[in-house]
Amino acid sequence: MATERTLVLVKPDGVRHRQIGEVLRRIEAKGYDIVALQQLVPTAELLEKHYEEHVGKPFYGSLVEFMMSGPVVAAVAEGEQVIAAFRSLAGATDPIKAAPGSIRGDLARDWGTKVQQNVVHGSDSPESAEREIGLWFPAL
Ligand code: IDP
User: What distance in angstroms lies between residue 95's CA and the mean position of ligand 1's atoms?
Assistant: First the structure.
């Protein structure tokens, strides 16, 4: 089986609630390596590329506004099948539906009507992972 890399983001709600360490801990506890790490407030240009599949959707504007509302931690996690494994660790997109035991199920605090405040992002395929890692870590 191939070693993969995936892009993980701790979104502004996760940073605000001091959940950076907990998210990284869960990745490492599962046996994966954090091979790159940085904290930044993303630009609208970066987010437009990152969320290119969502440009034009009704929630796009508020998603970008939320993602620029504070610092984001970007990490690259590496290991066997890490793309699917991190999606499993993260849980369902909607924190209300995310199972207890998952990052979103356990840690999302600001859900209310805002699906977007779901603590983390993880790449959904090898193609997305390569593209997203290139955007957030151009030197890798
Ligand atoms: P994912 O993050 O679980 O892969 P995607 O469908 O790729 O989910 O959506 C990207 C992000 O856009 C979600 O994590 C969430 O923050 C936001 N989002 C997705 N669907 C909605 C929606 O219907 N309303 C508001 N925000 C949404």
Answer: 10
10 to 1, 20, 58, 81, 136: CA distances (angstroms): 27, 6, 23, 20, 13
Pocket of ligand 1 contains residue 84 by CB under 6 Å: no
pLDDT in tens, 65-93: 999 999 999 999 999 999 999 999 999 99
CA of 83 to the centre of ligand 1 (A): 17
CB 90 within 8 A of CB 104: yes
Q: Predicted ipTM?
A: 0.93
Q: How confident is the model at residue 113 (pLDDT cuts 50, 70, 90)?
A: low
Q: CA-CA distance, 102 to 96, in Å (whole number)?
A: 11
Determine whether the shortest distance from the Cβ of 39 to ligand 1 is under 6 A: no
